[in-house]
Amino acid sequence: MQSIFRPALVILLVLTLLTGVVYPLAVTGIAQAVFPKQANGSAIAHNGVIVGSALIGQTFSADRYFHGRPSSAGSTGYDASASSGSNLGPLSAKLHERIAADAAKLKTSTVRVVPADAVTASASGLDPDISPAFATLQIERVAIARGVPIDKVAAIVAAQTEHATIGVIGQPRVNVLRLNLALDAALGPASG
Prior knowledge:
Layout: H1 2-34, H2 36-39, E1 43-46, E2 49-53, H3 93-106, E3 129-130, H4 132-146, H5 150-160, E4 161-162, E5 173-175, H6 176-187
Helix pairs in contact: 4-5, 5-6
């Protein structure tokens, strides 16, 4: 009997050490050495204080800031501990009503087409990025709220727009937190 259990226990202990201790420590060490910013959550600091992550969206509701996509994560949105979509299907009347209400708020005499990301949440509810079209849609509101020319805000949006990696991977996007920090840095935090 001992001849059966001893090799099994030795293999169990060796594999536990390898897969439960050695491998995680090696991967963590390599990640810290090669990609330290990403390994530590892609934190964004402002004046030496961490204000968020480049990977998780935040709620901005003031007119002087750009707003992110709608979020169904948690009761107030962008709650990383409650990451999920709304689970409302394409035939849901509640989903259609919310999208129609959001689109109606964004449509004006000059805006007839609302970008999809302006009225739909991402699958996780935590998407930190918006499309350049959605950012462009918000430029006038932000400029008016800050009392600055529209072209100044448009230039900041253009500078913060990230393009597809090597021209083909991903879509053009704007990180909302970085954009709002760039606004404050260039124009000063506006009141109101």
